[in-house]
Amino acid sequence: MTKTLTQIISATQALLLDDGTRFTTATVTAACRSALRDFNMVAPVFAGELIDVVNTQKEYALNATAFQNLIDIQDVLKQGTDTYLDDNNSLPFDFYMEDNAPFIRLRTAQSSGYLIVRYTIPNTVSGLDSETESTIPAYWDNTLIDGTCYYSCLVRSAGRVETINLNQGVPDTLQQTLAFYRQAFQMGLAQASRTHAPISNPSTAAWNDRWH
């Protein structure tokens, strides 16, 4: 179970030694949103959905609730038989958007069975933008908090650009803190980006194929 927005705000303020005066709930919430966006760019949720094959049909509208926040389609496979369910065959397809709705078009129509559509959607944080579930694995909580600290410091630094600084050491300290959390966040993102997506049997069509 990963942290909720309330827990992330508390953890961020604790790390920045603040009681909510300088790093307010609104600031940290905005920072968490930015950190989550960056996380989703490198490590979204890999998901899959079954679609009934329609005989001779090539185009399929992805209008199920599961595809509501679709980022990309990773693969489309023909589900194996009852005896060989693991023998799923990857199908050539095109993915496109029409009227902001996602569609796939098979190069060759299928006669029966099921299509397995593998796709990506964003991770969510419970309490952020009306979401009710936190989907990021608990292992990555600290990475998201590092990113939230980074963006919180970035916002705080921007807010002091044109203010009268009675203590000239404050901007320098903010920059040092910002740099620390930026590095920690980037290292976490680099590790998260190595998450492996589910695949069918790797293609050996070319020596430089991405699964080679």
Key terms for this structure?
single chain, 212 residues, alpha+beta, four-stranded antiparallel beta sheet, 7 strands, 34% helix
Major sheet characteristics? 4 strands, antiparallel
Q: What is the count of β-strands?
A: 7
Overall geometry: elongated
**DSSP summary: helix tally:** 4
Structural category is alpha+beta
Q: Whole-number radius of gyration?
A: 22 Å
**Beta-strand percentage range:** 15-25%
Average pLDDT, all residues: 87
Are there runs of 5+ residues with pLDDT below 50, and where? Answer: none
The span between the termini is 35 Å
Order of secondary-structure elements: HHEEEEEEEHH
The strands making up the biggest β-sheet line up spatially as 1-7-3-4
Helical content class: 25-40%
Structural features, described:
With 212 residues, the chain is of the alpha+beta class. Helix content is 34%, strand content 19%. It has a four-stranded antiparallel sheet with strand order 1-7-3-4, with no helix packed on it. The protein has a three-stranded antiparallel sheet with strand order 2-6-5, with no helix packed on it. Strand 5 and strand 6 (101-106) form a beta hairpin. The longest helix is centred in the last third of the chain and has 24 residues, at 169-192. It is elongated. The mean pLDDT is 87.
Reconstruct the topology from this structure.
Elements: H1 5-15, H2 25-42, E1 45-52, E2 59-61, E3 72-78, E4 89-90, E5 93-98, E6 101-106, E7 114-121, H3 141-159, H4 169-192
Antiparallel strand pairs: 1-7, 2-6, 3-4, 3-7, 5-6
